[in-house]
Specification:
The protein is an alpha/beta fold and 623 residues long. 57% of the residues lie in helices and 6% in strands.
């Protein structure tokens, strides 16, 4: 080491310039992270290779072929001209793809969302009226604002509060409603003002004699072709094939001259700018529906993104998906789009086609835009009954028969939630149907958690190494003086009455509570334990506790309940709790002259017992 080199223990002071240089990479890294959160598409754009771009172009072409008929169909479901479905397939898809976290999910018009839009707005304005479209745009804008706000507040866990059973029941009901709404187009019957589920069927049955057979044959031929092609090969563009067959049948039957209505030509223009009317009356009338629709859209999008993410091994950021969906609907409302969400069909097809990044979604949207601008007459010769038949196939796909059978077979409570949500979807306004399903599922959950099991436990003489086990399940003899109860559930305010009624059976006995299955004790639960200990002690018994998790005892510790109940009555193991009662129950286990003991064959304290000192220990909570 040279003389002018400072020793390692005393480095030279850093100048402000050197400090900035040293901290530069950290600031750059933090700025890059913030930028990636603000503009997530920059991440995959930097990594895009020529091979990825080529794969995305091919996948985008396949996606455009799939979304063209779907966009038209979903617009008709929403009660809008077909062009608005293609607008949503362009604007909503691009924004959601760029700002979401999934690299493969395709957003845009979706069947269940379209049905909710129609069911909500049609109660305020007739489809086709001047007021209908502005209300749809206002609803879409409100949905986007709600979704974006939830994403910015990082409330991605909100979707976990709505059970999968509620979604299954709702989408099944929406599928039936969608099919019902197309009956008038399939049969060629004018049903007047009938729009509800029961009203539509009643009006249809009353006017079956007015059926247009040319219209019905066209619709059924499209429907049957779609079903047949899907069964033969799902990778074929079954929608386009079915539409081609429907157009051919309609032409053979005479087309418009035979009374077969047509969808009509597209606008042939870019998505027009529109300003959603967000007046006070509009906000009040659409607020509840907007929240329900926002949550439903988020559930669908996050579920689809995660399902595709499992296949692609990509981690999905739920909050970023919230932001992407919110921005897409918010922006879409200013360009004549109705609310959209993720599409499982298009997302799965996008992944299967080899898509690598959301560039495939952008490519598909640009192809749809080119069709809209260059060949707007593509739908002019498309028969309306053919679209009705196609929509019925789409509606049938919403009914997940496999999941429904599983729910009905496995859980009675889940079956109740499923049936109530399904019926509410058919008979109530759609936004209330979602809330009804959520409410029923929460009520059943609270009912279940408010009734924690108190399981009687006893030693197993054949397996002493296992300690105490479920006495009823394994037919084990119990001590007449000491009752060991395992608490399977939290002791909170909703469970207090149930637990007190259970403990009332053991008046005068010594009760040991095993807390291995208890995760939480609130103030009401702690007060209940204190009261029950005093009641059992006054009746000649006792209440002791063991095996509770420390975080379950935090409230009892902070509130002084453990101190008042006596720390000597809390034990870490079942063995210690049992041993503490030996003197208290000695008389019941001792013979007096010719009089046998009251509990002669006790497995805890009798001569043949396997109690303390012989290996009794805390058993796992599910034994």
């Amino acid at each position: 080491m040279s003389a002018d080199t400072p020793p390692p223990s005393s480095p030279p002071p850093e100048s402000p310039e050197s400090t900035e240089t040293a901290e530069g990479p950290e600031h750059t890294s933090a700025a890059a992270y913030r930028l990636s959160r603000l503009l997530p598409f920059l991440g995959w754009m930097r990594q895009l290779s020529p091979g990825d771009a080529r794969s995305d172009l091919i996948a985008g072409l396949s996606g455009a072929v799939l979304v063209l008929p779907q966009g038209v169909a979903y617009a008709l479901i929403a009660g809008l001209p077909p062009a608005h479905g293609l607008y949503a397939a362009i604007v909503v898809a691009i924004i959601a793809g760029l700002f979401g976290s999934s690299r493969h999910m395709v957003s845009g018009p979706a069947a269940a969302i379209s049905m909710v839009v129609f069911g909500t707005v049609s109660t305020l304005a007739a489809p086709g009226s001047p007021e209908y479209l502005p209300l749809v745009l206002a609803l879409t804008c409100m949905v986007g604002i709600i979704q974006l706000s939830l994403g910015l507040m990082r409330m991605g866990a909100l979707v976990n509060l709505i059970s999968h059973t509620v979604v299954i029941g709702f989408t099944a009901g929406a599928g039936v409603l969608i099919a019902t709404s197309q009956l008038k187009h399939l049969f060629g019957i004018a049903l007047g003002d009938a729009s509800s589920f029961l009203g539509t069927w009643w009006a249809l049955l009353g006017h079956l004699g007015d059926t247009s057979w040319a219209t019905l044959i066209t619709g059924l031929s499209t429907l049957l072709t779609a079903v047949l092609v899907r069964r033969l090969n799902r990778k074929l563009p079954w929608m386009l094939v079915a539409m081609a067959v429907g157009c051919g049948v309609a032409a053979l039957l005479g087309g418009s001259a035979a009374g077969i209505p047509m969808v009509g030509a597209l606008s042939g223009s870019l998505p027009p700018f529109s300003l959603p009317p967000l007046g006070f009356d509009t906000l009040r009338s659409l607020g509840g529906a907007a929240f329900a629709l926002a949550v439903l859209g988020l559930i669908e999008a996050v579920s689809i993104a995660r399902a595709i993410g499992v296949r692609s091994h990509q981690r999905i950021d739920g909050n970023q998906e919230f932001i992407g969906q919110g921005l897409s609907n918010l922006a879409g409302s200013f360009f004549s789009c109705f609310a959209g969400s993720g599409s499982f069909t298009r997302s799965g097809a996008n992944y299967d086609a080899g898509a690598r990044t959301p560039l495939s979604v952008v490519v598909a949207a640009l192809i749809v835009l080119a069709v809209l601008l260059l060949v707007p007459d593509v739908t002019a010769w498309l028969p309306l009954p053919a679209m009705a038949g196609l929509i019925m196939v789409i509606a049938a796909n919403l009914i997940e028969v496999g999941h429904i059978r599983q729910i009905l077979a496995v859980s009675r409570e889940e079956a109740v939630v499923l049936v109530i949500t399904f019926l509410a979807t058919l008979l109530l306004p759609l936004e209330f149907a979602i809330f009804a399903g959520v409410l029923v599922s929460l009520v059943l959950y609270l009912n279940r958690t408010s009734r924690p099991r108190l399981v009687e436990m006893a030693p197993d003489p054949e397996h002493p190494e296992l300690g105490v086990r479920n006495a009823e399940r394994y037919q084990l003899a119990q001590c007449r003086e000491v009752v060991i109860l395992r608490v399977d559930g939290s002791l909170f305010f909703g469970a207090v009455d149930h637990v007190q009624r259970k403990l009332a059976r053991y008046t005068g006995k010594h009760v040991i509570l095993l807390g291995t299955g208890c995760n939480f004790i609130d103030i009401a639960g702690a007060e209940m334990l204190e009261i029950e200990q005093r009641r059992l002690r006054d009746a000649g018994g006792s209440l002791s506790m063991c095996g509770f998790r420390m975080y379950a005892l935090e409230v009892m510790e902070r509130g002084g309940f453990l101190e008042r109940m006596g720390r000597e009555n809390y034990f870490h193991t079942a063995e210690a709790a049992i041993a503490s009662l030996r003197d208290s129950v000695a008389e019941a286990h001792r013979a007096h002259g010719d009089q046998p003991a009251a509990c002669p064959d006790c497995q805890l304290f009798g001569p043949a017992g396997i109690g303390p000192g012989q290996g009794v220990r805390l058993t796992p909570p599910l034994a």
